[in-house]
Every structure is written in C-alpha cells, then in structure tokens.
C-alpha cells in the first residue's frame, strides 16, 4: 500500500465517501414514525478503517447573545449504525438503517428546517459527512390543532426554534409558532404556541396576547399563558368540534 496514498487519504484526498439515501422519495416523515433508508460508503484510493457511522437529526435555532440574534446548530437525536469495519480500496458498502423520529422533533414550517447528517468517523483521516434535508410533519393530534386554528381564521406568522437551556424537550431549544388573529378575534394581538407531543396526547402551551396600552402593556397584563392537552377523542369528530373548543378557550382570556 502506497505511503503517498495513505498521506493523501488522511487529508481527505482519495478518502472514503458517504451518501445517505432515504426510502421516502420526498424525505417526508411524521414525528413519532420511522425513517428508513441506507447509507452507501464508497472506498477511496486506499483501505481505511471506519470507526463508526452516525446519523444525527439536526436543526437550527436562534439565540440572543451580546444584544445580537445568532443562529446555532442543534441536535435533536443521534443514532449509531454499526461496529468498526474496514472499507477496501474502491469498495462499496450499503448499510440499511431505520430509526424513529422523536415525537418532540420540530416540524418543517416557517424558518424551521430539519436534516439528517451522516457522519463517517474514519481512523487517522478527515471525517466524511453528508446532509439530507427531510420534511417533518406534525403528529396527528398537533396537526389537528394547527388545522383548527386555520379554520378559526388564524394565520401563521412565524415558526422557528428558539434557545432555552431549561427546555422540556431533551435539547436546549423549543419550536414556537406565532399566529396573527383573524377578523373575529380583533381583541387579540397574537397567539403563540408550543407543542410537546406524546404517544397518546399532545400538550399545548399557549400564550394569548391581547391588544393593550399603558400600564397593562408595561406590566405584561396583556398576556395570559395557558396549558392544556388534546387527546384522540378531542379530534374524533373532525376539525369543527376542536375549533369550537379552542375558540371558547381563547375567548375566555380576551
């Protein structure tokens, strides 16, 4: 084996490459369901040891620091695929994978983008990587809440992930949805929601911001925070009964 080839591979020239192919042609998956595919490893100009193949579910979030808003990378979950192996010169290996996308994964909406990052840990060389954007759909129950708000005339203004070191989601950020009210909710300024999905229900954290001036606005008396859960029986009758329930809840704090 050529020493020159070893040296060049160690700096990434002629090194092994990785490509991830998802089974879902559109890369679409619902939070809480399984994502499947295969990782293709192509050997380079010399044999190399692959210590590990790791898949990471990744997004970005905003963080306030030094009076500036910066966007940082956040990891939702990590999934190791295999034991160490050696990829021979010009060899191609296909390694199937499957993992469950966590229920608490942010959904693809607004500024939120989700992707699978494949990392190839190569001994004594630069790591190879590959990024594949996926579209994460909300859980069944969260989707009904979003549809019910649209039915009530609310319009999504923004959806983005924000930094929170005390987040309840297992990572240091959360996804927030901001809604502008429709004509029938003229007393509102905006509606903010955070979802925490579970296998059998979805927990909803809602902030109802009313239009206010003077002391009410100064002391945040125009904001009310409520927390509630939506279960399968709440959506069994379709969108209209759920929309009616949300309508009543919101009007209680207007």
Can you put this structure into words, describing what you see?
This is Sporulation protein SpoOM. It comes from Paenibacillus sambharensis. The protein has about 250 residues and is an alpha+beta fold. The protein has two domains: about 140 residues, Immunoglobulin-like; about 110 residues, no CATH class. The protein contains five helices and 14 strands. The strands form three sheets. Strands 2, 4, 5, 6, 8 and 9 form a six-stranded mixed beta sheet that branches. The protein has a five-stranded antiparallel beta sheet with strand order 10-11-12-13-14. Strand 8 and strand 9 form a beta hairpin. The radius of gyration is 23 Å and the shape is elongated. The N terminus is likely disordered.
What secondary-structure arrangement, pairings included, does this model have?
Layout: H1 3-10, E1 17-22, E2 28-30, E3 34-42, E4 48-65, E5 68-80, E6 85-87, E7 92-100, E8 114-122, E9 128-137, H2 140-151, E10 155-163, E11 173-180, E12 188-197, E13 202-210, H3 214-218, E14 223-230, H4 232-235, H5 239-251
Parallel strand pairs: 2-9
Antiparallel strand pairs: 1-3, 3-7, 4-5, 4-6, 4-8, 8-9, 10-11, 11-12, 12-13, 13-14
Helix pairs in contact: 2-5
Strand content: over 45%
Average pLDDT, all residues: 87
Sheet bearing the most strands, described? 6 strands, mixed
Question: Per the principal axes of the C-alpha atoms, what is the gross shape?
Answer: elongated
Termini, distance in Å? 75 Å
> How many strand segments?
14
Helix content: 10-25%
By CATH, the topology of the largest domain is Immunoglobulin-like
**Low-confidence segments, ≥5 residues, pLDDT <50?**
1-14
Order of helices and strands: HEEEEEEEEEHEEEEHEHH
Pfam families: Spo0M
Organism: Paenibacillus sambharensis
Protein name: Sporulation protein SpoOM
InterPro entries: Spore_0_M
């Amino acid at each position: 084996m050529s020493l020159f080839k070893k040296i060049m591979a160690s700096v990434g020239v002629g090194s092994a490459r990785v490509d991830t192919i998802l089974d879902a042609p559109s890369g679409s998956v619902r939070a809480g369901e399984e994502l499947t595919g295969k990782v293709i490893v192509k050997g380079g100009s010399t044999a190399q040891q692959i210590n590990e193949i790791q898949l990471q579910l990744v997004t970005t979030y905003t963080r306030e620091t030094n009076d500036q808003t910066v966007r940082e990378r956040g990891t939702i979950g990590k999934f190791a695929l295999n034991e160490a192996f050696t990829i021979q010169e010009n060899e191609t290996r296909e390694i199937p994978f499957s993992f469950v996308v966590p229920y608490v994964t942010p959904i693809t909406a607004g500024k939120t983008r989700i992707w699978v990052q494949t990392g190839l840990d190569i001994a004594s060389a630069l790591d190879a990587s590959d990024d594949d954007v996926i579209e994460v759909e909300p859980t069944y129950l969260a989707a009904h809440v979003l549809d019910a708000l649209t039915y009530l005339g609310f319009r999504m203004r923004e959806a983005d992930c924000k930094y929170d070191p005390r987040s309840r989601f297992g990572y240091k950020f959360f996804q927030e949805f901001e809604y502008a009210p429709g004509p029938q909710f003229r007393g509102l300024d905006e509606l903010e929601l955070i979802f925490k999905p579970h296998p059998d229900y979805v927990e909803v954290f809602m902030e109802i911001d009313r239009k206010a001036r003077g002391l009410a606005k100064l002391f945040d008396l125009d904001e009310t925070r409520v927390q509630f859960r939506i279960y399968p029986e709440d959506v069994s009758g379709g969108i209209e009964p759920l929309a009616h329930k949300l309508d009543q809840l919101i009007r209680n704090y207007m």
